[in-house]
Amino acid sequence: MILTTNNRLTTSWGAPVGDNQNSMTAGSKGPTLIQDVHLLEKLAHFNRERVPERVVHAKGAGAHGYFEVTNDVTKYTKAKFLSEVGKRTPIFVRFSTVAGENGSADSVRDPRGFAVKFYTEVGNYDLVGNNTPVFFIRDAIKFPDFIHTQKRHPKTHLKNPNAVWDFWSLSPESLHQVTILMSDRGIPATYRHMHGFGSHTFKWVNDNGDGVWVKYHFKTEQGIKNLTEELGTKIAGENPDYHTEDLFNSIEKGDYPAWKLYVQIMPMEDADTYRFDPFDVTKVWSQKDYPLIEVGRMVLDRNPENYFAEVEQATFSPGTLVPGIDVSPDKMLQGRLFAYHDAHRYRVGANHQALPINRARNEVRNYQRDGQMRFDNNGGGSVYYEPNSFNGPTETADNKPASFTVSGMADSVSFDHNDHYTQAGDLYRLLCEEERTRLVKNIVGAMMPVENEEIKLRQIGHFYKADPEYGICVAEGLGLQIPQKVR
Q: Which portions of the sequence form the region Disordered (predicted)?
């Protein structure tokens, strides 16, 4: 059998390999010789095949597709990929669980990450959200502590419900998200059967420089479907990759999942007078006040060819923006603008943006050079600093972010609005009786292992303040009484 050049096994530096079945030894019984550089290279590369997993959102699945504009929104934003009805933009989407490790089960009670990368003609735009419209906390300074409570105890290496409920009971702003998480929506049936949200408030700016505040809503066309706690646990034991498998198989057989994108638009001046802080990510805007406006349709129609290259190495950040879309003063968002890019530089490398899955479709021109894993021509011999006299790339003033007014004393301050109960109570009352029964059952089951009664009573107090029935039902389920001071 004669091998062609294309079929020859080579080392990573391209030299042909003579024997890939037997290591080089001193005689048939060894020992192994260190001069077997092919063996050393194989073992060394194998040791490094896993990049550090994401601190959060470690377990996930992804797919390629397109986004098509279905409604004219140019009066709100100059973003080019939204510039005309019918315009299509290629996308890559990654869905994920939040707290679990890379090998954890898909069907656990946990929020789901919902990250979309738009490959626009003027650079990539990342919309990095969840399948819930709110979050547990509203200030990024609390994020490391919150995530620590979701991870394993440093001594037992077991999940720690004491830490989870201790943190939540001491952080009443979490109540809205906790109610969603413990409801039927806490375990989506599949990635295809859940909505997605940008969660944060962002800013859109039009060609005239006029801005509006915006929230994103992806509505699944497959319909909402959820799993009960019992079924989710059963699937976790039988097929822990259930959601990953479902997404891949549905696309493979041509059953392409789709979502409609809507936005809520708030005039800039309303932010000063709205009854909830519009930049508080633990709150929603009423759709009666700011109705949903259709923007477009997202379709996933192609599976990755290689999971590691396209899903594991995909990097998203809410700071990956394009002209026409900007950020808001949301304190959680402000922290994420740093943390996400920094996590990718640590996990994947300083040049993660140059990897094929992350690379912009338009030409990238800047003065960044060198760094680990620089695999293109590194700018060649072109000018590598700015300003310069050699016709290097320069800024374009019309793409400068719109200015905005800031004022106030520099200090570590809390939010002005601290009503953590109204929206959580509204959500509880919106549920039907069967849904409320399951919500309470899920909460009681999750809180039962908590050893400290004070933590339980503190959390029950939050439920009671949201709705007395809510608190009483949880207390009864745990065999406790509502504290008199709460009543």
A: 1-27
Do 356 and 431 lie in a common domain?
no
pLDDT tens, residue by residue, 295-351: 999 999 999 999 999 999 999 999 999 999 999 999 999 999 999 999 999 899 989
Any idea how long the chain is? 487
Tokens of 134: 């709110």
- β-bridge mates for residue 123, sequence order: 120, 121
Task: Kindly provide the residue ranges of all beta strands, DSSP E only, lying in 138-277, ordered along the sequence.
Answer: 196-197, 202-205, 211-220, 258-267
Tokens of 98: 């939040």
- Residues 243, 119: one domain? yes
Residue from 330, 326, 329, 342 nearest 144 by CA:
342
Range of the domain at 126: 60-154+188-362
103 shares its domain with 230? yes
Q: What is the CA radius of gyration of the chain?
A: 26
Residue that finishes a domain, picked among 362, 382, 408: 362
Whether residue 426 lies inside any domain: the answer is: yes
Do strands 202-205 and 196-197 pair parallel, antiparallel, or not at all (unpaired)? Answer: unpaired
Token pair, residue 324, equals 């026409």
Q: In total, how many domains does the chain have?
A: 2
CB 60, CB 101: distance < 8 Å = no
pTM of this structure: 0.93
Res. 132 pLDDT band, cuts 50 70 90: very high
Query: Which domain CATH number covers 317?
Result: 2.40.180.10
Please state at what angle helix 433-447 crosses helix 175-182, rounded to 10 degrees. 100
Four-CA torsion 285, 287, 289, 292, nearest 10 degrees: 110
Are residues 323 and 255 both part of a single domain? yes
Domain boundary among 340, 362, 384: 362
- For residues 343 and 346, give the distance between their C-alpha atoms in angstroms, rounded to a whole number: 5
Q: How many angstroms separate the Cα of 31 from the Cα of each of 18, 20, 45?
A: 20, 17, 22
Q: Which of 130, 131, 351, 358 is catalytic?
A: 130
Outline where 85-200 has alpha helix (H).
143-150, 161-169, 175-182
Domain shared by 109 and 200, yes or no: yes
226: tokens are 């959820």
Structure tokens at 44: 């060394």
Q: Is 57 a catalytic residue?
A: yes
Tokens for 238, please give them: 């039988």
Query: 168, 174 in Cβ contact below 8 A?
Result: yes
* Cα gap 160→145, rounded to integer Å: 13
Does the annotation count 176 as an active-site position?
no
How far apart, in whole angstroms, are the C-alpha atoms of residue 267 and residue 313?
38
